[in-house]
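Dear colleague,

As promised, here are the two records you asked about, laid out in our usual form so they can be pasted straight into your sheet.

NAME FIELD: protein one
SEQUENCE, THEN STRUCTURE:
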Amino acid sequence: MTRLKNFINQLIIILLFVGFVLTIRFQPISQTFEFDYDEGFNLIKTFLYSQGFSLYTQIWNDQPPLFTVLLSHWLNLFGYSIFAARLLILLFSALLIYCFYNLISSELGKIPALTATILLFTSWLYIRLSISVMIGLPSLSLAMLSIYLLHLYKQNHRRFYIILSGITFALSLQTKLFTIFLVPLIFFYIIDFNIKTIASRKISKKILINTALWLIPLGLIYILIGVFFQQFWNHDQLITTHLNQPQNLTLENFNNREYLSSMLSQDYDYIFLACIGIGAIFLKRYRNGIFPFAWLITAVLILLNHQPLWYHYYPLIAIPICWLAAYGVAFLYDSFFKKKLINTKQLIIPSLLVVILIGLVILTPPNPKGSVPRNMELMQLVLKYKDSTNWIFTDRPIYAFYARLRVPPEIAVMSYKRLNSGELTSQEILSVLQKYRPEQIVLSRWTYQLKSDNKFLAYINANYSKTYTNSIGSEEHYIWK
């Protein structure tokens, strides 16, 4: 009964978080046409998968399969609406917040945990990413759950938690592979950073067993999912597109240092608290604090070298920053409130740190990132010809999702990465047009690039009638003659 009561209480906390976000962000969740182009890609892949098309062999897909499959089942239950899809992401965010809070609370107490959780929740674009149909946050949520399950093992020494942690981390990798850098860090977390054990050259049997219990389920589940969805036979989609990105210094996303600095500038106050926390970790020898510190250093090094760099990678560093900030809050709290005899000299440094923190809060510039442009006139045209449409060709598949229309699965993802890497050529695009003969064409993102190919343009002019173009020619709508 006690376990059931605890489970219900924890479930209520997660639902309260979801309810809170729904209350403060109901209008954006329900009415924003598209937060990011990735929303359209994820939604149309899900729609096509639900229509019976297979990932990789039919639907071009440069990401692991799990999120698409999960979202498909979710929308089958709750309806194919943008609100339902965003609600699933919000539930993942609630799970991440829950694990994050409990990890910190068990070591540092409720005040540092609550403060760090609020910092994470209010970090740059976290709320927006909590309601955007994108795969980064679900992957991080599952990774945090994996770490939290290891933490539960350390509390009660039930190896079931280690096995479940390995399975959960496999699910994280099969959602988005960018959490793979945490694997070696989690190895150290499993052995609890026991430096003496390593130095003795006699790694205990217990450590070997625990590591195997985590790694074997991880590898097994990851491989089984990959084999089932034929993921490993299409490495060109999963790997080549991401690695073969030629430099484009005209975009801020290829200027890693400048773009990363721009992102970090939104949370200078949090970073300052994290620096205090890092000092407290080494000063007071908080062994568990080494994990978020190693996470932060590793993530920063990766983001400084990975190109292109996208804003939705920011939680990779926001999570450890806020985690480390909890140690800073604990240090300041102990300095001000936990000493029976207050020594004025001892309060000088903590007081100065608080003043600096307040100043950084004031100086941190707001830099919100709006949703991508929408064109309701285009949407109305798509709906107008919906009944006579079997296929729609579009470089912005969110229009197809709202209309519940199929796009040729080969071009479900017409992303910047795919075009920039040369994985999708003009000839291939023209071949798709000739194969499917879509009754509608909507150009809304890569219009100039697509029309720069003379063969593509000639085919459209010969077979389609233009029904709409905006004032600058960047958005167009065509129907089959």
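NAME FIELD: protein two
SEQUENCE, THEN STRUCTURE:
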Amino acid sequence: MKILKLTLAAACIATAAPAAAETVEPRGDGVGTEYMVLEVEADEEAKAHFLRGLALLHNFEYRRAATAFESAQKADPDFVMAYWGEAMTYNHPLWQEQDRDAALAVLARLGATPEARQAKVRSPREAMWLNAIETLYGEGTKEERDHLYLARMRALFEADPSDIDARAFTGLAILGTSHGGRQIPIYMEAAGLLEPGFMTNEMHPGILHYLIHSYDDPVHAPLGKRAAERYAKVAPDAGHAQHMISHIFHALGDWEASEAANVLADAVVDRQRAAAGRDPSDCGHYNEWLVYALLQQGKDASGIVSACRKQAEAQIAQGADNRLGWGASSSYAVISTWQGVDTGNWPDPLAGTGDGFILARTKLAHGRALASFGNETEVEAALSDLKSLAADYAEILPQVEPDNRTSINWLDRAVAQAEAVLTLSNGDVDAGLAMLRAAAEAEMALPKAFGPPRIAKPSYELLGEQLLALGRKEEAAEAFRRSLEFAPGRRLSLAGLEAAGGL
């Protein structure tokens, strides 16, 4: 079930991106290609494909970018930058993902060795771009290579500060060195490099995109509004661009605007799926953010949640691609647990998950612990499942996501919260409150994550609710204030703060 009707506020946001809002069947070319100015020496047809791929790369539309770069290679088989671009699609620094082997395979098609590849460059500038990516996928650990790559990109940028793409990719490379989560000094360094590019190329998709990432936390989000106002206009046919502006709205607690942005993002993706002969999707990243925005407004998200469950069941019937089980099942677990927290409408178990789909099973086990609050036996059973799954997760994660250093931290936080819930359900109020407080402080100590909270219910919110039930209003109000620092604009925390007399 799709949400197609925009509220008045959503319509206002849509006017900030007229091409996405008004064009029912776009040609699919609105990705910012017209703002690409990188000078390359290539066949004209190859250059056209390359510039489109470059725009898609800046938009994190990686598969579509790879296709464009492959078309450039066919038009000009020795065009170095076409291979550079395709290899770049396998590096996702902000998602803690990199497929080094796949990238090296792309470069190997250009030449068997770095020396052979370097012999094909057509300009000194092109040689610098190639040297940078050879370093990115060279020897050493990913963290070492990220820093070496950044050094090469700094040199590339300093050699010609007027090169807007060098500025953009250097800013992204800076962000890519913030290993283990957001480090504010690194993010502000990136913003400082990107901001002059905004002054000269205010519609460049890379500059806008990476500025939004630099600023998408509650403290700095107001600085990202200018980029958000422009980015959706620049790339109306890039779903990620439509979604990205909601990073700023989310950090500001502007749920109507976040809803509108993700409705548009989902519509773009569904049009692309339809063109490829595929059904629309009610799961996935954009739908997750949409559901969260709806819940924060007290709106009904059950249609999306129910439709996503059907897709999750279909995925489970087909079997998992890997034991973590990315996809519809994990997406459903996330949004159904949020719905349970916000409305008390908890999901029924997903049948047939077996030994796979650990992502979904961990989320649902944590949800069961929260749903069973007060029932010692049920909470204990859910906690036991959660701990077992957490152990499996910790074992498998390095194998399938070797660069992911943050997800396990949040799973540990879910376990700690469930342990506090069990203690409270046992009737040991003082110990349970102390455990909840410790869990909440540990959550606050982790690097600030963009987007919806990485835990289904912030522990400070849960602590505030328990204190409020005990009549300890001043303490409850302070807990709700801390929860709102952790998750700005969160509806249940705002309601709790009001009930505690804190507003």
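A couple of things worth noting about protein two: The chain has two domains: 28-228, 286-457. The radius of gyration is 24 Å.

Best,
R.
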